[in-house]
Amino acid sequence: MPVYAIQIDTPPILKAYVSSSPADDTRFFEQVANLLMPYSGGSIPTGIAISPIQTFSLRGSSYNVKDWQTAQDFLLFFYYTGRASDIYQQYLDVGQGGVAPINREELYALAQQYYLIAKEVYQRCQGCSTYIPDFAMFSLPQKGEQMVEKEINTQTQPISLKPSNPNKPYDDEQFGSLADLWFSLYLLNEIEAGYVEGAALGADPSVRILRGDGPELAQQIYFAALEMNFSPEIHAYVSELVPFFHAIAQAGGEFTAFESEKVLPTTMTKGKTEYQRSSGWYQEAQNALKRTELTKQGVTLPPLISFEEAFALPRGYNPTFASALTPFLLTDGARGSGFNLFGG
What are residue 98's phi and psi, to 5 degrees? Predict the structure, then answer.
C-alpha cells in the first residue's frame, strides 16, 4: 500500500447567499481574476507564489456571493490547486540531493492526483469561463521536465473594495497603521539601527523589500483591506493603494522562487524566468505607487537589483526583519514613518 494517498480533505464551503445583504460578486470574481490570470497557460504556481491562492480559498468562503455555485467551484479549484502545488513542491525539494526518507515517485503521483481533481473541478464549472474567459489551465510538469517558460502578465486587474457603510465603524485608522508599518520597515527604513542585526542593513534596498517578511506582510494588508470598511473620504485613495501591496506580494514570491531556482543543479535558466516575473511585478508595484498621492511626498521604490547582482548573492543571505525587530515591535512599538499616508 502506498505511503501517500489522497487524505481526508476538508475543502472550503462558501456560506449561503443572503439576499438582504450586499452581494460581493464583483469583489470576489475580481480577486479570482487577479490570482489566476498571471499563471494562465504556464506551470502551476509553487512555493510562495501559491500562498495568495491558498489564502483566498479560505477567506473567500465568507463572501456573500449571489452566483454561489460558480464561486464555490472556484474555491474548490483553489483548494485542490494548493494541495497539488504543496506536494509538487515537496517532490522538487526532495530532488535537490541527499538521501530522501520519502518516495519521490509517490509524492509526484499524489501531486498529480490533486492536480487532476482541480482540473476536473474547473472543467465542470459552467460559470467559471464567464469571469475569466481568457484563462488557460496551467499545467503540472511531467517528472523531470522544466517548469513551462511563460511571460507572465503582471498587470493587476481592477480591485474593488467594500462600499462605505456609515452604519459600521470605519477601519481607516487600522489600515493606516498597517500600511504605515509596512512603509516604515521595508521602504522608508524608519527603524532603529540597533534593532537590526547582521547584514540586514547592508542589503540592497530592493532585496530588503523582496526578501524576508515584507511580501508576506504586504499580502496580509492586501487581504485585510478587502474586508475593511473605509470612510468615503479615503475610499478612493485606498483603492489606488491596495494594488501596490498585491504587486509587492507577488514580486516577493517570484523573487523567492528565483533564489531557489538559481541554486538547482539541473536548472537551465539559472532562475532568469522567475527573476523577470519578479521584475514585472516590482514594476507594477512602482506604477501603482505612482498613481497615489504618496509620490508627491517623495515615496518611491528603489531600483530593482540586477539579475547578475541578485544571482551573485550568497545562498542563505536572507535578512528578515521579523526576528530582528521583535523586541522593537513588542516594547517601543513601530515608529511612524514620518509621512502622512492619506495626504491630509
Answer: 90, 175
Of 110, 131, 152, the position where a domain reaches its end is: 131
Instruction: Please state the pTM of the whole predicted model.
Output: 0.66
Q: Same domain for 181 and 324?
A: yes
Q: ∠ CA 239-242-246 to the nearest 5 degrees?
A: 145
- Scored b (16 or more CB within 10 A) or e, 140-166 reads bbeeeeebeebebebebbebbbbeeee
> What are the cell numbers at 10?
476538508
pLDDT at 243 over 50: yes
Is the CB of residue 191 less than 8 Å from the CB of residue 328? yes
The predicted pLDDT at position 112 comes to: 93
Cell 514620518 appears where?
338
Please check whether residue 19 lies inside any domain of the structure: no
Query: Looking at the domain assignment, is residue 14 inside a domain?
Result: no
186 confidence band (pLDDT: 50, 70, 90): confident
- pLDDT of residue 6 exceeding 70, the answer is no
Cα–Cα dist 207/195, whole Å: 19
Residue 248 lies in a domain: yes
Residue 212 lies in domain: 172-332
